[in-house]
Design a protein that fits this description.
Layout lengths: L5 E5 L3 H11 L4 E7 L12 E8 L2 E7 L11 E6 L2 H13 L3 E2 L4 E3 L5 E6 H7 L4 H11 L7 H9 L1
Parallel strand pairs: 1-4, 5-8
Antiparallel strand pairs: 2-3, 3-4, 6-7, 7-8
């Protein structure tokens, strides 16, 4: 059996990021910290090199590789939520901890990693069999940063 682990590049802050994710999301943990056995570009023996962690059940490794490769919107975690309270909790944790808002349910944490806090009501509305409903839901979403459940539900109802 083949296993997959996401490798995410950090500029010396992998442990801080992993601890934040473990504190913020269910089924998340900081699992192990490994130090470099020798000097490497951007670091020296004994520096924290990799951090193993789990985010929402997904195994990850944070590589403290330096500033060469910053995170971009080309990769994001998409987190499905069931209520406005859950959406608010995750959004506010990320944005309120040095992150920044973006459009349509996207935000970035303070380490530059992108997150999509995506209510199931939005996903279901975008997959509705009625094209008019999909269009209304899409139009409503395009006006939002954090997704407003009630506004999406209203768009579904028309």
């Amino acid at each position: 059996m083949t296993g997959v682990t996401l490798c995410l590049w950090y500029d010396g802050t992998a442990r801080d990021a992993a601890a934040f994710y473990a504190d913020t999301f269910p089924d998340s943990s900081l699992d192990a910290v490994h130090v470099a056995p020798g000097d490497f570009p951007g670091g020296k023996a004994g520096d924290e090199l990799t951090v193993e962690f789990t985010v929402l059940g997904i195994k990850c490794v944070g590589l403290n590789g330096g500033p060469i490769f910053p995170h971009s919107e080309a990769f994001s975690f998409q987190v499905a939520t069931d209520s406005q309270e859950e959406t608010d909790r995750y959004w506010n944790a990320i944005v309120g901890n040095g992150g920044q808002e973006s459009a349509c349910g996207w935000c970035k944490d303070k380490w530059g990693l992108s997150w999509q806090i995506t209510p199931r009501v939005l996903t279901e509305g975008m997959a509705h069999p009625d094209a008019a409903v999909r269009q209304r839901v899409f139009a409503a979403m395009m006006t939002m940063h954090k997704i407003d459940h009630a506004a999406i539900e209203a768009a579904v109802r028309g």
